[in-house]
Structures are given as structure tokens and as C-alpha cells.
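Marked as duplicate of an earlier ticket. Keeping the data here for the record.
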Amino acid sequence: MANNNLKVHGDVKPVFAIDTLNGSGSATTGVPVMIQGPHMDFYAIDLGADASGAMGVDQAVDAVFKCLTQLATIHFFQLDTDKLSVATYPVDAWTASDLQAAIRALGTVDGYDLSGATVANRGFKLSAS
């Protein structure tokens, strides 16, 4: 008699990962698996001051996005006053230090000073801390 409670095939690894050359997924714990999309980098960008009024065309947040998209695609983002969380792909398009230098080099954009911005590649987190 067969034991119907035993799993006979499959595992919890992704079926197919489009962000790897051979299509196989990673079973590394602590690494998010984005089944519906590519593997991503998650950056925490501290803009230094409230940027909620700097989200228009050619304003500070737009300038940061234009800078970021020179090497990567933004999958999603969240702005929480002065904290910008961004998910990008492909991975390793930017290092945190290179992105920080590029954003700081923007200087003052439409009255908003980006020269003190800090960037950390913090991985996927569900909280702002």
C-alpha cells in the first residue's frame, strides 16, 4: 500500500529562474526568490532631507532615478520622506559605493542637495530600519 503522505517529486526550489544562465534556481536560505521576475538588488538611499516635494519631472527624485537607470532597471520603489527604497535588476549593475558616488555627483537638483546622500545595498527588508 502506497503512503499518500510522502512527497514523491518536486521541492521548494524555484521551478525556473530567468536571472541565471542555466535556468536553475538557488536554494540559499535568506535570499529572496522572485518567481515572477528577475533576481534584484535592494538599495536603501538616504537622501538627507524630506524629498516628498521633489518628485516632479527634473526634480531630485527623478534625477536619482535617471542616474540609477543608466545601468539598471527599477522594478519598484518606495519613498518615505527622506528614505528611498529601490529594487533594481540586473544584480550587480551598481555597487552601493558607486551608486552613492553617482548620486552625490548630481549635487543640487532644483534646490535639493544630494551631495550628502548615502546608499546601502541592504537586501530585501519589510521594514525601513
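See parent ticket for discussion. DSSP finds two helices and six strands in the chain.
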